[in-house]
Amino acid sequence: MYMPESGIFLSRSYCLTFYYHMWGSNMGDLMIFTQNGTQSAVEKWSTSGDQGDVWIEVPGIDLKLDPQTKILITARKYNGDAGDIAVDLIELWPYPC
User: Would you tell me the Gene Ontology cellular component terms (predicted)?
Assistant: First the structure.
């Protein structure tokens, strides 16, 4: 999932908050990246592995954004069927965390 560049971001710091759920023996990774235009994506946050059958809050990730910035949320599961990754209540606040 990604928030495409749309020209809506002002050049400033933002605070990204969300909840995630990662449960299962074949769990992989959950990562947050920013990408400016055609430049390479830059990892801003990540976690990996089985986190248990609970929702976990990420209270804030500071992101410096501008009108050309995209936010990418990337989930990767390892081989096998035992595992799921979900994100919910994604909020982007117009101030630093």
Answer: membrane
Which letter does DSSP use for residue 26 in this model? T
Q: Contact at 8 Å (CB) between 26 and 46?
A: no
Selection from 63, 66, 61, 75 nearest residue 5 by Cα: 66
Give 12-63 pLDDT, tens digit per residue. 899 999 999 998 887 889 999 999 888 899 999 999 988 989 999 999 999 9
SS3 12: strand
Task: Determine the Cα–Cα distance for residues 16 and 60; give it in Å rounded to an integer.
Answer: 5
How many Cα atoms occupy the beta-carbon half-sphere of 29 within 13 Å?
8
- pTM listed for this prediction: 0.83
Give the number of residues written for the chain.
Answer: 97
For the chain, list the domains and their CATH numbers. 2-93 (2.60.120.200)
Count of CB atoms within 10 A of residue 59's CB? 8
